[in-house]
Each structure stands twice: as structure tokens, then as C-alpha cells.
Design brief:
By secondary structure, the chain is mainly α. It is 72% helix and 0% strand. It is elongated, with a radius of gyration of 21 Å.
Length: 193
Amino acid sequence: SGESLDSNSLENISREADANQRENSSVPNFPPFYPLIYHNIRFEIPPKRLFIVRLNFFTAISIIISLAFSFIGSLFSFLFDSCNELTCFHVGKEIFLSFVNCIVWTAILFYNQYYPFYTSMRDETSNNSLIIVQLFTIFILLVFLIGIPGTGFIGVVYLYASFESGTVVNRFFGFVLSFWHFINLLLEIVIFL
């Protein structure tokens, strides 16, 4: 018991020393293309919370990459043969909305969900608003998974439509992104629990 107390004391002293050093030299480093904040999971997050913060970061990056892949997939919307009772693709609208979704949801995800979660874990404080934000994130990922054509999202409905009037390329993007959104949804649910 004495050893674990000493170990915890040393860990706290080490974290405080690291924190003091960061306060004096914490140059913004995130996001890499336009640094706004200092972000260092390994040094700022307590060891007992490292896994959940890394999982949240990985999931946020995965969501952003899937939105970028969705934008690329929307460029192939012109391959749909025609309109049917389920969907009618307006290629320009699909591409524009997919691009807007990629930009807007990236900003919303990091500003409202990931960074407040990160600071809450870093400072070891409670942030009850994160519960609502996490539920909203799960809901939005469900919308991504559904993937209604005409919204810029590629998901299950898009996949179904691609089997009716699309090509192999549309089916590929529909399948990959539906699966990807499903995995992201599961990861966000795990983070919530």
C-alpha cells in the first residue's frame, strides 16, 4: 500500500512538472494544417483515461476521413442511370452538400464534441453538457449511416439505390461508407457508455 501511494505521488508530481513545463512552452500544434490549440494526449491526459481519449480521437479522425471519402463518392453520383421512386440524383447538389458536410461536420465534431471531451479528461472535471453532445453525435452518425441521397451523405439508402440504378462504383462507395459509418457509430456508442 505504501509503494502504490508513493507511485501515485510520483505520478502526480511528474504530471504537475509536465503541466508547468507545458504552460511555459505550450505552442499550439493542433490541427496540424492551422494550429490553434496545444494538444498532446500522451502528456496531458491521466493514464487511467488515455484509452478513452485515444479512442475518441481515433473515432473523430475516422469520421472526418469517411466524410472526405463520401465527398469523393459523391463525385461519381453522375453514374446513376435515372431517377426512380427512391431517389433522383442532382449531381451538383450532391457534390456541393457532400463538400459542405465534410467542412461543417469536421468543425462541429472537433469544436463541440472532441475538444470539450479532451479538456474534461485532461482537467479531470465533470462536463454534463457532453452527455447531450455525445447523444447528438450518435444521432448524426445514424443520419450518416442512413445516407439519404440528396443530403450529401452516402449510406444504406444510397447503397440500396445503387443496386437499383447505379453502377459498381456507386455500390462500392455505398457499401464501404455504410460499413464505415456503422463502425463509427458503434465506436461513438462505446465512448458514450
